[in-house]
Amino acid sequence: MPEKRFERLRELYEGDSPRAHRFRYWLLAFDLVTILFVIATSFTRHGPWIEAVDVLFGVVILTDFAARIVLAERRLRFLILPVTLADIVSIISFLAPLAGEGLGFLRVVRTLRLLHTYQLLDRLRADFPFFRRNEDVILATINLIVFMFVMTGLVYATQYRTNAQIANYADALYFTVTALTTTGFGDITLTGTTGRMISVMVMIFGVTLFLRLAQVMFRPPKVRQTCEHCGLRLHDPDAIHCKHCGAVIRIETEGLS
């Protein structure tokens, strides 16, 4: 790749210019659209227009994936990261209509792509005061939602052909929420050993993430300001000294209303 084109690509993915920020927000919006598309099309028969959109999404994801490989300093390590493997599966699954519907169910793995949004944290802190004030709650909520949709996708992918109670994504989501909250109405159950193991995963990991969200929501409010001496990141909003080492800290404020 010519040096000038490589630097332009790096600037888009890693730069700090307004154009780079807009580009990364566009990627985030694209991720959300693909997830909504996967959910919506679970209620319909996969006709030619859905296959065409699948291919379009697959090409965009493949282009983004190729760019990340080019920019990666340690490409072998990059290729074995969980989010990278999720992207590979997503590319294959979105392009599956080219080879038939055999891999179509793998499209649910695209939900994991939300984890890529964590690279936008610095920009979100700078652009949105609400995010800056509630970062821990927002991230804990995102973790729970991502897990919920990943498990819903897994339930749908493994059950919708063999379990008459799972006819679409809404049925799978309903089961996931009732299992996660341990409500357990019993009107939808997963079949086979695989289904039981999925139920166990939803209950154990889902409840853990739910408790983490509750812990973050109800603990005393803190501000994120890293102490230069000891590295402690969370402090009281009116703190002048670090509680861990006693060093002076300077917390930026937006003034009183």
TrEMBL record:
The cross-references to InterPro entries, in alphabetical order and at most eight, read: K_chnl_dom, K_chnl_Slo-like, Volt_channel_dom_sf
Domain Potassium channel: from-to ranges: 145-218
* Lineage: superkingdom: Bacteria
Q: Where are the transmembrane segments?
A: 25-43, 49-71, 78-99, 137-157, 169-190, 196-214
Pfam families found in the cross-reference section: Ion_trans_2
Q: How does it sit in the membrane?
A: Multi-pass membrane protein
Q: What is this protein called?
A: Ion channel
The source organism is Albidovulum sediminicola
